[in-house]
Write a structure and sequence with these properties.
The complex is a heterodimer of chains A (about 300) and B (about 350).
Chain A lengths: L2 H35 L6 H15 L4 H24 L7 H23 L4 E2 L9 E4 L2 E4 H23 L1 H11 L1 H6 L4 H27 L1 E2 L5 H14 L4 H21 L8 H15 L14
Antiparallel strand pairs in A: 1-4, 2-3
Chain B lengths: L1 H14 L3 H27 L6 H16 L2 H7 L4 H5 L4 H23 L4 H21 L1 H4 L14 H20 L1 H11 L1 H6 L4 H27 L9 H14 L4 H22 L2 E3 L2 E3 L5 H16 L27 H5 L3
Antiparallel strand pairs in B: 1-2
The chains are: A mainly alpha (about 300), B mainly alpha (about 350).
């Protein structure tokens, strides 16, 4: 490899890790809820969208205020979603839950169409965020660095939270076996509320990072990252938080690699290759990468 | 009986036909084909599919390619030579489209039906995304985002009714067949069914292929109804609508598929009328556009909360046939009764 090749490779690597980090955060948000509730929350993308619109209105404020307001609003939206839509159907079968979340997603999207319109709005992200810095000849955008570091920090914090706090341990117990955990005194409502709150927190952070790059927000802005998140969660093994993170990084790295190495005429079909790989992976490991044994005890 | 109801509506339509009303009825009839097709897989197997619109797309595009006039095709699309020259009538093109979709379903379904419920749902979503990416970019065959146009619009209410008739007959025969019964047994308890000798994956695959064929037929009708369509017609919004119809009606019975389609069509057309403006005692009310979809979302959520198993909750319009115990069942055998205890 020549020096130029090495530089290019390092740039791709940083982009892949940064994109993978974003996907990992989305996947974690989806996996947290799957753990305690047992369904994929299709409305996760709408949480990201809500964050985008909040950011649109607070972006002119001080950075810290803007970020806190956005994340806070998304946490509230996630808690509301649980209380209004999911609690009444909590005991229904997983398919019904899945479709309820599909309905919630459709409803929130259309409320957005109704209130803010379908035209994309430009979010005046402060100049400088998308600047590049040169580290040893490798050009990296500041946002890519921020994205990767935020991911790592959040992953570590979440890890500590799940290991060391009472509610974290209870959430892991509930993810193992919700019914048994309740018998042993784990407060069901509280655990579920925490799961939604944390999921909202992650979605809020994702909206800030994602909108900072797209600089535009539409009612369907959350769809693309959320789709990737669902898929990452499934290939990670559904109940495994580590798996969701690995799944997210896998998809991020795969996207960037295909972008770089697919020949020109196939580049348009990149997503077909990604999702084809996903199907192949699921066929090889139906239980996901970290799904434990394939068999089910009856 | 549901067929009779639909025929009645169609006959009435032909009598009192206004263009708008005819359009609504034909649209609903085509949706019913899609919902019934989806039901064949989802209702009988208990798995969920976010990917069936992919087969609708295959049905619509295949039919379109075979029925658009050659001159028009040469101008708007550039398919390979023999596809450009060919022009078939609808009744020949539709079966070919169904066969193509069924073949794709066989290849795609064979590995996917082995997955658990969630992985299967997501793998089918991945399939839908692949179909979309291909239909957006393979523009010499599909017209890409600029849409496929020039498809003869020759779907009359009567022909659409014929399509629903076929779809419902297939669904009925399938659900009453041995395969359908074995599959429903596996829906209730996969492992128990496997333990009494049901080849769960094989039955699922058969249902998947049949179901893909039926929704592809719906796609063919759709193509010949609207005449112009683009990849966006076969993506998440339509997936949502069709799935919502099945779930609101009750996904475990054919009657549920019919009732759900009627209910959602009624609500959504009603809301659309409302959105177009309403005069109440000289007072003109005009809600903002988007009211229709929002109202539909609320309706669906309320329906799910109140009736999680759907309006019909697994019931049919007719009582389910329960087979009397077979003559040679052990308890009916004189030898068994006489055996020393």
């Amino acid at each position: 490899m020549t020096l130029a090749d090495t530089t290019l490779f390092l740039q791709d690597l940083i982009n892949a890790l940064s994109l993978g980090g974003l996907y990992a955060l989305v996947a974690l948000g989806v996996a947290l809820i799957f753990g305690v509730m047992g369904f994929i929350n299709f409305a996760h993308g709408e949480l990201i969208m809500v964050g985008g619109y909040v950011l649109l209105y607070v972006v002119s404020q001080n950075h810290a205020v803007a970020i806190l307001a956005t994340v806070g609003a998304v946490v509230v939206a996630a808690l509301l979603m649980e209380r209004v839509a999911f609690r009444p159907v909590r005991n229904a079968d997983p398919t019904t839950l899945l479709i309820t979340s599909f309905a919630v997603s459709y409803l929130i999207q259309n409320i957005a169409f109704l209130t803010v319109g379908s035209v994309g709005k430009f979010v005046a992200i402060p100049a400088g965020v998308s600047d590049s810095v040169s580290i040893g000849g490798v050009d990296v955008t500041k946002i890519a660095i921020a994205q990767f570091s935020v991911t790592i920090v959040l992953l570590v914090l979440l890890w500590l939270f799940m290991k060391n706090t009472l509610i974290g341990v209870q959430m892991r117990a509930a993810a193992e076996d919700f019914g048994m955990a309740r018998f042993l005194g784990v407060p069901g409502n509280r655990v579920i509320a925490y799961a939604f709150g944390l999921s909202g927190l992650l979605a809020g952070v994702v909206s800030v990072l994602y909108i900072a790059q797209t600089t535009a927000v539409t009612p369907t802005v959350g769809l693309a990252p959320a789709l990737v998140g669902f898929v990452a969660t499934v290939i990670g093994g559904m109940r495994s938080l580590v798996g969701a993170v690995i799944g997210g990084f896998f998809l991020g790295i795969l996207s960037v690699a295909l972008d770089s190495y697919l020949p020109g005429n196939l580049e348009l079909y990149r997503d077909a290759f990604i999702y084809g790989a996903v199907i192949a992976l699921l066929i090889l490991r139906p239980q996901g990468l970290f799904g434990g044994r394939g068999g089910v005890r009856v | 009986m549901p067929l009779a109801a639909v025929s009645l509506v169609v006959v009435l339509t032909d009598l009192f036909a206004s263009d708008v009303f005819t359009r609504i009825i034909v649209q609903m009839t085509i949706n019913l084909i899609l919902v019934v097709g989806l039901y064949i897989f989802v209702g009988n197997s208990g798995l969920v599919s976010f990917g069936h619109l992919g087969f609708v797309a295959i049905g619509a595009y295949t039919t379109g390619l075979l029925t658009i006039a050659p001159d028009f095709k040469a101008f708007n699309l550039q398919p390979p030579g023999f596809l450009e020259r060919i022009q078939l009538p609808f009744w020949q093109a539709a079966p070919i489209a169904v066969a193509v979709a069924a073949c794709v379903a066989l290849v795609v379904g064979a590995p996917i039906v082995r997955l658990n419920a969630f992985a299967c749902g997501i793998a089918l979503l991945a399939f839908l995304i692949i179909v979309r990416v291909v239909s957006v970019n393979w523009s010499n065959m599909t017209g890409g985002l600029a849409s496929m146009s020039g498809v003869p619009t020759d779907v009359t209410p009567l022909r659409a009714l014929l399509g629903v008739g076929i779809a419902m007959a297939v669904a009925f025969v399938f659900q009453e067949s041995r395969i359908g019964r074995r599959l429903r047994a596996s829906r209730e308890d996969e492992h128990a069914a496997a333990a009494i000798g049901v080849h769960v994956n094989r039955e699922r695959l058969i249902a998947f292929v049949v179901s893909a064929g039926v929704v592809a037929l719906g796609g063919a009708f759709f193509a010949h109804f609207v005449g112009i369509f683009s990849p966006d017609d076969f993506y998440l919004r339509t997936t949502f609508l069709i799935l919502a119809m099945l779930v609101v009606g009750g996904r475990e019975s054919l009657a549920g598929a019919v009732v759900g389609t009627l209910a959602i069509t009624l609500v959504s057309e009603g809301l659309l009328r409302l959105e177009n403006g309403l005069d109440v005692g000289g007072l003109s009310i005009k809600p903002p556009s988007g009211t229709q979809e929002t109202g539909l979302g609320v309706f669906l959520l309320v329906a799910l909360v109140l009736r999680p198993n759907g309006i019909m909750a697994g019931r049919e319009f007719w009582p389910r046939r329960v087979r009397p115990p077979a003559q040679d069942a052990p308890e009916n055998r004189p030898a068994a009764a006489a055996a020393p205890s």
